[in-house]
Design goal:
Elements lengths: L15 H6 L3 E4 L2 E4 L1 H4 L12 H10 L1 H12 L8 E3 L10 E3 L2 E2 L1 H12 L4 E6 L7 E4 H17 L7 E5 L4 H13 L2 E4 L6 H11 L3 E5 L2 E3 L2 E3 L1 H9 L7 E5 L12 E3 H5 L11 E2 L3 E7 L7 E6 H15 L7 E4 L6 H13 L3 E5 L10 H9 L3 E4 L1 H10 L2 H4 L8 E4 L6 H11 L6 E3 L36 E4 L5 E2 L4 E7 L9 E2 L3 H9 L6 E9 L5 E6 L3 E4 L2 E4 H8 L5 E11 L3 E10 L7 H15 L8 E5 L12 H8 L16 H22 L2
Length: about 675
């Protein structure tokens, strides 16, 4: 029942009032004047704001007042907060909106059902194009309430943690919101992780309840998710029940602990009393990889996270009432949490849940979807943009993209060539491209070209400007703040913000050591950044992705950006490896565009010349290995850890490869690496 299309009668309600309210400027006597109340209603009561830059300055210098005003305006409270913030970064103590009580599901559903119940909340873009399902706010609330009542009836209590292992779909969103409604935390695990990885996360979260589907469908293939859960829970004795929804009609083996979720939901009432939650109660855990190899369960809490997700969604993307927001990230990642679910729904928006892949059934999938669903903001990953660039412009030009207003990039720094293709071909040169920098730890976007003046410049490949309330700083190797521009350093944030993770589940000491101790009094992001002479920020890559060649520090992203500018190159990945003389050398993997006919030795010479000219001779790759594809996770991230192990010839240390989109790519790379090394040895032996 829960999977059936709900018809086309429900259309998006466009509020002309909201459109008027959110116009950023008005004309007075022929001059453009900044109207703070029109641009940001949350800041209407703040005096003395003459333009956006003074609003930005106020949000940083008077952060407590700024965030308090935003929280009062943007969120619906059961009881008001008495203290806007109580934070000490040096001790890892982060508390926002203390004394306040609210329910996140009420903020995402009930308040919109009161005003526009038939507005579309979710458009589920299923794997097969043209089979999308629309779910209204009223329907999503009913689904959430039934599931919340079912969880309560089956013993899930306030403070418990429920693990969700599902593909993007309405029931996955309802599962997240049902947990929020009854006061349970959720732990969404990407439905491409192996049974072993899932089990590790279930155990660490102490989940006694797991929610899944019988099978997933992605890229025309059926994925046996229930079987993966069965294998995982065999090593999780704390799991007492597994709720199973039916994504396909194929029956699966059910055990005594399994529950037919949809059948049981039909027995429940459509009204579910929302739990009264403190601002700092846990909303969810989300596991991210750590340098030690053990995943970190980052903890996000109720009010601060929701406020930050909502505000960044509204202002970074210039989201307006009636827009269709198309974030193609999986709900298993923080991008899916913040910009497929919580941000858009808190804002009463219409959000797309994308189940498929960028190239199924062909490389025009994204743009066919944009045309069919009339998407206004599109938010995707650079790796997908580079993949589609490889297939050529014709797949984009085939479809009408005139509804697009903003293009977003997320997950890693976007190289210049991909940025320019995205802007010129996909956006027809008229849509701003917002290259967003943020992390699971930050909860939402921290640095992005927008919001800014409508005619403010956007530099390709740069995240550029901090969001309201965010104060980035660069630190040198001595731990001192770098105050000048045109400089590089470790990227830190100098004051707390509401969306930041509060701790690592069951290991606050690790949180302090990872984020608070490296630069006491600052939040250490783990990333390096460059600040241009204009004061714009460019992310240079993880500091563990910085190669030190003969004492020169160079970010892998910088080299990749140059290599990817070559017209024959689709994408690349650089890593550092141990070098007898230079300390570290540069090893570069290169994927060529389709139908490129070029000698590899000639192309290697050309790429080295480009790197030498664009950066410096010391940055030139020592090895260039041409490969058909790079090892990636199913979310599209390049697994540089795997590439390092191959180059270091530590094949026993490759670890679990089941999370890769195509594990066969690794064997191909291993073989190519052996051949390249063999050629080098032969050359060295020649007189």
């Amino acid at each position: 029942m829960m999977w059936l299309p709900c018809g086309r009668a429900s259309r998006r309600v466009v509020s002309s009032f909201s459109r008027r309210v959110f116009r950023s400027y008005f004309h007075v006597e022929g001059r453009r004047k900044f109207n703070v109340a029109a641009f940001m209603p949350e800041a209407a009561g703040i005096q003395g704001l003459s333009d956006r830059s003074t609003l930005q300055e106020f949000s940083v210098s008077n952060g407590e007042s700024f965030w308090a005003a935003a929280a009062r305006h943007r969120l619906s409270w059961i009881s008001p907060f008495h203290t806007a913030q109580d934070c000490d970064l040096s001790r890892g103590r982060i508390k926002w909106f203390e004394g306040g009580k609210l329910n996140v599901s009420v903020n995402c559903l009930d308040r919109h059902v009161h005003t526009c119940p038939e507005k579309v909340a979710l458009i589920w873009e299923r794997d097969e194009p043209g089979s999308e399902v629309e779910v209204t706010y009223r329907q999503l609330l009913e689904m959430t309430c039934r599931l919340g009542n079912l969880l309560r009836r089956r013993g899930v209590k306030k403070g418990d943690c429920v693990t969700i292992y599902m593909p993007p779909c309405p029931l996955a969103v309802a599962s997240m919101l049902a947990c929020a409604r009854i006061g349970a935390a959720h732990n969404v695990v990407f439905a491409g992780f192996s049974a072993e990885a899932l089990a590790e996360r279930i155990r660490d979260a102490h989940s006694s309840t797991v929610i899944t589907v019988n099978q997933g469908v992605r890229g025309g293939k059926v994925i046996e998710l229930k079987k993966t859960v069965d294998t995982a829970v065999d090593s999780c004795p704390m799991v007492q029940q597994v709720l199973v929804a039916m994504r396909t009609e194929n029956p699966v083996a059910m055990t005594a602990r399994d529950v037919d979720m949809e059948e049981e939901m039909l027995k429940e009432d459509v009204v579910c009393e929302p739990a009264v939650m403190d601002s700092e109660d846990v909303l969810f855990l989300l596991y991210t990889s750590g340098s030690t190899g053990k995943p970190k369960g980052l903890v996000h809490t109720q009010a601060g996270y929701l406020l930050y997700a909502a505000l960044t969604h509204r202002y970074v993307f210039s989201y307006h009432d009636g827009d269709v927001f198309g974030c193609v990230a999986d709900i298993g990642w923080i991008t899916g949490h913040s910009y497929s679910v919580y941000g858009p729904l808190a804002n009463g928006g219409t959000t797309v849940l994308f189940e498929s892949t960028p190239i199924y059934p062909d490389p025009g999938r994204y743009w066919e979807m944009v045309q069919r669903l009339k998407i206004n903001q599109f938010y995707g990953a650079p790796t997908a943009i580079r993949l589609l660039l490889k297939y050529g412009d014709q797949w984009v030009h085939k479809y009408d993209r005139s509804t697009l207003k903003t293009l977003g990039s997320v997950g890693e720094p976007i190289n210049t060539e991909a940025w320019e293709w995205y802007h010129r071909v996909v956006g027809d040169g008229r849509c701003p491209v917002v290259d967003t920098w943020w992390q699971t730890e930050t909860g939402g976007i921290c640095i992005s070209p927008r919001p800014s003046d409508p005619d403010a410049e956007i530099v390709p490949g740069m995240a550029m400007r901090p969001f309201f309330g965010i104060k980035p700083v660069l630190m040198d190797t001595e731990g001192k703040v770098l105050t000048s521009n045109n400089t590089s350093g470790a990227l830190c944030i100098s004051q707390p913000w509401p969306g930041m993770a509060r701790t690592i589940h069951n290991n606050h000491q690790r949180y302090i050591e990872t984020y608070c101790q490296p630069y006491p009094g600052y939040f250490f992001t783990g990333d390096g950044a460059y600040r241009s002479k204009e004061g714009y920020y460019q992310i240079t890559g993880r500091l563990d992705d910085v190669i030190n060649v003969s004492g020169h520090r160079i970010g892998t992203a910088e080299i990749e950006d140059v290599v990817n500018q070559c017209s024959a190159v689709a994408e690349s990945a650089c890593i550092g490896y141990s070098h007898d003389i230079k300390g570290q050398g540069v090893y570069t993997f290169v994927v060529l565009k389709k139908d490129v006919d070029v000698q590899e030795t000639d192309l290697s010479r050309l790429l080295n010349d480009m790197v030498s000219k664009k950066i410096a001779k010391y940055a030139c790759p020592d090895f260039i290995q041409f490969v058909h594809r790079l090892p990636k996770t199913r979310s599209g991230k390049i697994m540089r850890r795997v590439l390092r192990k191959v180059v270091e010839r530590d094949l026993n240390g490759l670890g679990d490869l089941s999370t890769l989109d195509d594990p066969a790519a690794v064997q191909e790379i291993i073989q190519g690496h052996r051949e390249l090394r063999g050629q080098q040895q032969q050359q060295q032996q020649q007189p």
